[in-house]
Amino acid sequence: MFGLMDGFLKNDPISLQKDILYHVEYTVARSRFSFDDFEAYQALAHSVRDRLIERSHDTQLFFKRKDPKRVYFLSLEFLMGRSLSNSVINLGIRDQYAEALSQLGFEFEVLAEQEGDAALGNGGLARLSACQMDSMATLDYPAWGYGLRYQYGLFRQVILDGIQHEQPDFWLNFGNPWETERVHVTYPVKFYGTVEEEILNGEKCNVWNPGELVEAVAYDNPIPGYGTRNTITLRLWAGKPSDQRDMEAFNTGDYINALVSRQKAENISSVLYPDDRSYQGKELRLKQQYFFVSASIQDIIRRFKDAHSNFDEFPDKVALQLNDTHPSLAIVEVMRVLVDEEHLDWHKAWDIVCKLFSFTIHAVIAEGLEKIPVDLLGSLLPRHLQIIYDINFNFVEELKKRIGLDYDRLSRMSIVEEAAVKTIRMANLSVVCAHTVNGVSTVHSELLKTKLFKDFYELWPEKFQCMTNGVTQRRWIVVSNPSLCALLSKWLGTEAWIRNVDLLTGLREYADDADLQQEWMMVKKVNKMRLAEYIEAMSGVKVSLDAMFDVQTKRIHEYKRQLLNILGIIHRYDCIKNMDKSQQSKVVPRVCIIGGKAAPGYEVAKKIIKLCHAVAEKINNDSDVGDLLKLVFIPDYNVSLAEVVIPGADLSQHLSTAGHEASGTGSMKFLMNGCLLLATEDGSTVEIVEEIGAENLFLFGAKIHEVPELREKGPAHDVPLQCARVLRLIRDGHFGFQDYFQSLCDSVEGEDFYLLSSDFGSYLEAQAAADKAFADPKKWTKMSILSTAGSGRFSSDRTIRDYAEKSWGIEPCRFPSEFDG
Ligand code: KOT
């Protein structure tokens, strides 16, 4: 007999084939006798989606029955990339699908390439959210992700003559098979208008009469765990015109304007802001923040009220995670709902709200903290501004009792900044309310305590925690590096490391084993071949597989110092040019690979991209240099490209000026893939050194505590000769565009805020050490094995356990099933 606990859908290759053909015929509406790769991908994706939906129903029903405390992860950005391979691997049915497809005459890998990236985020913060969702599902936590369903994701980067151009990312044009539109899950979101005091049941209360109403519609994206039936949901909101308001407008006869205003509603969720860290006080951005916060909070409260009637229990059932300050209006929104709509007493409501939130900061410097102009907030969300003032009043009164009338400190800690433009400090609001505040690496968390939030730390030391970032080994090894995955399972004698990555330490005992080394090098070679093929197809540059593949891929930022890398490459080029043949024969050949997007308005970053292209043009066409040095820029770097680039890298560079990178997560992905790091002692690198030992990577540069003094020395400090020579080559026009590049050179020889010149010598030494190690394959391979072996601590599984235990207070809630792998 068929039991309700059995899955409805079968996963043997024949059943999968039947399902794929069903979707070809009835979902994609093509003949099952004739369909192309893209149509096959669509049908395949729909058949996978069916299985995800089944599991997510089971998971939700189970959660409902158990009613555990849930965590709601609020983030304005999720950088999910592709879903197909990740889903079938987590479901444990990749091989069955591959077989089913091959009998139909298709190759799984080829179809997987048909999928576009879901790029609903900028960089580190957004990809971290995606990794954390994977870990929350895998570890069976009762979790939800909430965000915005942008119609246009992060811009596509197109390079013309070395200059970055931005083009829209029409990612939804061909439909998105992974999401389900929940037409019945909609909430009204209010904007503008006025607040009136009214008497209700003899009590004074504030009533917000909005000037604009927009409907939020839910789109659910299933996130399957690995080795479990649990499948959680990432719920993304899209703006839709509110019929209620529209009918009024249409009835007044203003047909055109009524239609235009419908369009405006959709604009709210239309575009992702492409700058990850500057706040320009844009109204649309604030609207986006409130829109997603309001819909999410309504949804969360609705779910709570389905099972509970007393808000005293709210903090026992709900944990709210703020991913940076972007969702921090949630604090104010919950206060508003509890006080104005649920009619709780202010102090009781505040007491509840303070038990709900944990707050993660990703910024490093005070200028990175979000501030919202009071005028803007007051016009868009008049009631929220009142509530913030009230929160601040109570806080400052409390503070005076604790610290006395230290006005400087009081004004630094105030949520309201009384400057020329009066603003709300969202980070202060979040620290005041959250029960835990965390940084994303040990050094960053210390920095928060000693610099950014020193005043708050002294007041509430117990709030401050460290949750070092991590990345998911499912995507960053199993999906993107199948050869390494197979090798790891073989040598560890188990696949258990995919759920318990600490087992990778078991590799250490074989680090000198000649057989493992041999196989390890083969795996790297396979991955380098894949990357080399991509490079040739994309740029026409042929690269030698014997060369060291040296990669720096990340957003282009001055503090990340791609410029230092390029100056180093010019130095290498200059050295090779000045060598005789016998000296040249000793040079370790390099393929330097740089990739990343610059924010559209970030002129300096765009100049760095142009310089990279100009230098590449010169080097790659110089027959004196040949295979000894190549430089390629990979345009439009995104998650799916990272899946090709990272496994193929021998060396990766993480060059941030010490004290500027909160954590860095790219380095963790490279580390897992046995790529050696060349890095400054910044962010999470400090912890990587603790795990793998300083002898297994190439460290260089000023340390965090040395930076202020070096900066003090300022423009007067000596530019080392080697650096000066490289800058002279640029200034003299060796790479063309002489005038255009002068300002980049000035920045190094002038203020040198990011300390390129003072770190240059030590950077070259680290590069020389890397060359030397690469020339000794046994040594290099051992270092590479030890890198992977020591990467366990940087799994997002560990990060999520940290959050669950130290901050959210939640327990796993695993669907009991014979199917749970
Ligand atoms: C966002 C807003 C203000 C300031 C900084 C940010 C920010 C920081 N966005 N992304 N990040 C990166 O977040 C990653 C995940 O924590 C870190 O690894 C990385 O160091 C940050 O730069």
TrEMBL record:
UniProt source species: Rosa chinensis (China rose)
Catalytic activity reported: [(1->4)-alpha-D-glucosyl](n) + phosphate = [(1->4)-alpha-D-glucosyl](n-1) + alpha-D-glucose 1-phosphate
Broad class of enzyme this protein falls into: transferase
GO CC terms, sorted: cytoplasm
UniProt cross-references to PANTHER family, sorted A to Z: ALPHA-1,4 GLUCAN PHOSPHORYLASE, GLYCOGEN PHOSPHORYLASE
One example GO MF annotation: pyridoxal phosphate binding
Name recorded for this polypeptide: Alpha-1,4 glucan phosphorylase
Keyword list, A-Z: Allosteric enzyme, Carbohydrate metabolism, Glycosyltransferase, Pyridoxal phosphate, Transferase
